[in-house]
Amino acid sequence: MQAAPATSAVVVRVGSVVKEFGTLRVLDGVSLDVARGQTVAIIGRSGSGKSTLLRCIAGLETIQAGKIEICGHEVGRPGKTARAQLRRDVGMVFQGYNLFPHLTVERNITLALTLVKKQSRDAAQKKAAEVLRLVGLTEKISSYPEQLSGGQQQRVAIARSLALSPQVMLFDEVTSALDPELTAEVLAVMEDLATRGMTMITVTHEMGFARKVANQVVFMHRGKIWESGPTSELFAGPRTAEFKQFISSEL
Amino acid sequence: MIHLNAHHVWYLIAAAQWTVLLSLIAFAGGALVGLPVALMRVSPRPTLRIAAGGYIQLIQGTPLLILLFLTYFGLGILGYRLIPLVAAGLALTLYAAAFLGEIWRGCIEAVPRTQWEASDCLGLDRFQQYAYVVLPQAVRMAIPSTVGFMVQIVKNTSLASVVGFVELARAGQIVNNSTFEPFIIFCIVAAIYFAMCYPLSLASRFLERRANAGRASH
Amino acid sequence: MLYKFDFSFLMEKWPAFLTGAWLTIQLTVLSIALGFIVGALCAVARVYGGHMLRLLVGGYVELIRNTPLLVQIFIVYFGLSSVGLKLSAEVSAVIALVVNMGAYTTEIMRAGIQSIHHTQLEAADCLGLTRVQTILHVVLLPAIERVYPALSSQFVLLMLASSITSQISAEELTAVANNVQSETYRSFEVYIIVAVIYLALSLLYRLAFKAIGLVLFVRRRRLGTAL
Predict the structure, then answer these.
(1) Domain count, chain B
(2) Residues B119, B112 contacting (CB under 8 angstroms)
(3) What order of strands is seen across the sheet that includes strand A216-221?
(4) Which of A108, B100, B118, C172 has the fewest CB atoms inside 10 Å of its own CB, making it the most exposed?
(5) Could you tell me if C127 lies within 8 Å of chain A, comparing CB atoms?
């Protein structure tokens, strides 16, 4: 089922972004617009720059040229308020889940709610229960991360970011570290989120998911956006040799 | 009141020689006694293990100062004239042996089980296993922390002053009693200790890094 | 040459030993608590601080770790009084012990803090936590849990090292031993008693730290696994 149709408001605007690590140019003039409610899948070989692009959007990496805007605010503006604004708007889920091992699932979720959003304990706990219900892990609320499977931990990580009500959620190869049988439960949660209208950018190797859920697919190669467009069109008619090669190798 | 002058500083540096001597005695003695202790700790025989373990627990649970007093007065009981150097040397030896024994036990146990098995399959007896296969590897692993422990020994020789041995710390007190400038004097004393200990600390860290690099390349 | 052991002085002198032991406990518990705070702060500075701060903390740690505690105590007690700051033996003892403990704790805590993977910090950052909040809630407790055995050992070592403060006449256990033996001439017996008391204190401290660990580290208490 395709995600809900996009409205015209642009949530993420990436303009001619250049990113270098020392002398290595990892992003070579990347531009991308993501409208509200859209689900964008970024695909490509390792080293193509897709994770780096996501991290730049999240503000985890600095860019050398170009501009990134989230909800009209520029990413990378100095100052505490600018940073706080970015963190409010963007939710990030990592390949390694990065749950806090010394805290329970509930505390993992309520930590930012109480410290950053200054919510009361009760309000935070209520929110935690709500997002855990969304990802289907209500019964694990008092467990520690180590007691959960990889798939469950990743769903908690999604819930943790979701609890902060971000404008856009970024997913960085969130199923790559999982055993195949655990991947489905995470993808199901992501599909559900998309249906509910969340703006999502996901770097993924899961072609099935991309075809099924994403509105727009972006194929990256050597730091550039090689091909991009609506999902069905793109997969139906690959134009460049590199993309053709990529598709055939992924099947 | 005499003012602090170059003679006093020279006296302090000369006293540092005794610190070095006592340190070497303590290390030599500690190594000599410590190796059997370590071997006893990994022995298959429980009596040896427990005896060595008890010794280590005893020493590690008592302040070195008390140990010094015990050996000093203990020697007196046995009828020997109370010679500070001997008492201090003995106490520091017992102290160092316990700690070195523990460090070296750890290193022996860190030699992979497979080394024991391989040498056993080649027909080596227990003594040969130790001498030709296990100990050489354990020694290589032990060097960084052993050098690091030397720093502890040098610092601990300062306590020998309480049984009357004139090493660097005592010399500082003596100079202070004639010039009454404790701040400068003890800062100089500290500086001399630092000059002796810091190179050892650096060496220990350098050896540790090199050992880790070597392990990583395997 | 048979030595006749004579412990009869205990009948009369045991309160003195108890008082001495009590002062040892007071001195060391205070020094451990303050020293730990100093060490934790310095470790945070060492790992997250600017270049100047890291250099300063590094210098402090190297200075303390490469000089004997006895000399450090002399500098605080005799040295400071000669430049005008007259402190009691007990206060000097605590200052010297705190400074000493701080340096060793810094190194131990530094290892603990550095064992926290940077992805944990990244996750906290993405959730919007400030630097300070991240250190307090995500870094410190797991770091302490990781290095807790090393910390406990260091704390016990400090308690044993407190015997050195007898050299500036702080009236702790070793000083009491020195006093009693000079009165009774039963030197060997006195120091055996005191050695036994220190052994008992070591055991007591180790048990206390274990208990504190159980209270502090909820996850470990519930699951029994290492972090």
Answers:
(1) 1
(2) no
(3) A90-93, A168-172, A199-203, A39-44, A216-221, A224-230
(4) B118
(5) yes
Mode of pairing for the β-strands spanning A199-203 and A39-44 = parallel
| C83 in contact with chain A, both atoms CB, cutoff 8 A | no
C203 SS3 class: helix
The alpha-carbon gap from A103 to the nearest alpha carbon of chain C, in Å, equals 7
Average pLDDT rounded to a whole number, residues A129-145: 95
Domain membership of residue C147 (yes or no) is: yes
Lowest mean pLDDT among A51-55, A246-250, C47-51: A246-250
Chains A and C touch (3+ CB pairs under 8 A): yes
**In this structure, what CATH number is given to the domain that contains residue B87?**
1.10.3720.10
Domain of A211, in residue numbers: 10-95+168-250
Q: Is residue B44 part of a domain?
A: yes
Give the pLDDT band (50/70/90) at residue A47.
Answer: confident
Q: What is the 3-state secondary structure (H, E, C) of C139-158?
A: HHHHHHHHHHHHHHHHHHHH
Question: Which chain A residues are Cβ-neighbours of C225 within 8 angstroms?
Answer: 146
Cβ <8 Å between C68 and B193? yes
**Domain presence at residue C4:** no
Alpha helix locations (H) across chain A? 50-57, 80-89, 105-115, 121-135, 150-162, 180-195, 207-213, 231-236, 241-250
pLDDT in tens, A184-242: 999 999 999 999 999 999 999 888 899 999 999 999 999 999 889 998 888 888 888 88
Residue A154 belongs to some domain of the structure: no
Burial of B22 (C-beta count, 10 Å sphere; 0-12/13-18/19+): buried
Residue that is written with structure tokens 């050597």 in the block: A222
* Residue A102 CB partners (closer than 8 Å, separation 6+): C141, C142, C145, C217, C219, C227
Number of domains in chain C: 1
Report pLDDT digits (tens) over A158-187: 999 999 999 999 999 999 989 988 999 999
pTM: 0.88
Can you give the pLDDT at residue A251?
A: 66
**Which residue of C70, C100, C176, C193 is the best one to mutate when testing the B interface, meaning the one whose CB has the most B CBs within 10 A?**
C70
Contact B193, B159 (CB under 8 A): no
In a domain, B1, yes or no: no
Q: Is residue C3 part of a domain?
A: no
Domain-located, residue C53: yes
Average pLDDT across chain A, whole number: 91
Where does residue A110 fall: left (phi above 0), alpha (psi -120 to 50 degrees), or beta otherwise? alpha
Per CB-CB distance under 8 Å, the chain A contacts of C130 are 80
Give a yes or no: residue B42 inside a domain. yes
B with C: how many residue pairs have Cβ under 8 Å apart? 116
Q: What is the CATH number of the domain that holds C216?
A: 1.10.3720.10
C residues 189-208 closer than 8 Å to A (CB): none
**A10 Cβ under 8 Å from any chain C Cβ:** no
Query: Do chains B and A have 3 or more beta-carbon pairs under 8 angstroms?
Result: no
Angle between helices B168-179 and B6-41 (to 10 degrees): 150
pLDDT for the residue B137: 87
Residues C127, A90: C-beta atoms closer than 8 Å:
no
Q: Is residue A1 part of a domain?
A: no
The domain in which residue B211 lies consists of 6-216
Residue C85 lies in domain: 13-223
Angle at A92 between CA A91 and CA A95, to 5 degrees: 160
Structure tokens at B203: 């060496």
